[in-house]
Amino acid sequence: MRLLPPLLLILLLLPLPARAAAPWTEWNDLYVAIRDETIAPGLARKAATALQPRLRAASRGAGSPARVFPVAGYGPECGEKGRNYQHGRYDYYGSNRKGLHPAHDLFIHDPDQDGRDDATGQPVTVVAFSAGMVVATNTGWLPASPLKGGNYVWIYDPATDRFCYYAHLARVDVRPGDRVRAGAPLGLLGRTGKNAYARRSPTHLHFMVLAWDQGRMTPVNPWPELLRARVVPGP
Fold it and tell me: What's the average model confidence in pLDDT over 131-153?
């Protein structure tokens, strides 16, 4: 039997270097820790600041100036016209005071609360407001869960350095690492989430936009953009 040279043998026996996880996988994991309050706000912000340049590099070229209303078959008439938009001192990295709502609720016609448009009898598709990369999702929400967002999608738009959040979906059809164009289907609208599931809550999409600024995640009111966004037909 031919023996391997000692140096080659040593190299073969050395452990392989661990490969870094994809930045969208790390961002998804970081958001879960922030969401579940298992990481201190200061550490979370430090981790996000270190990770965001990798996220931007990985999603280079995914941005676009196009804007599409995020509820297929609906337009600005389904929103609350900004009356319920309250960002206050919103902190992406920590606990937030009850009543803060730096987002828009976009309602569908669903009086019987079955998650379907009552006029068509069909599920309603949630589409991407802007192009970008999917960086976090949640699926499989159950009514016993305390999670307020239920099934959700986060998309990072490298063209604007903004993160868009779509919550209360019945079904999520994308996963972290997917690149999406504006208007691309993300899933079906539903009633998932602790408060959205309750009978007192009309069926709606919770839509939020946060701007990245040197580690800060600052709420941006997208209502002027929603007014000008292209409306795509429903089923």
Answer: 96
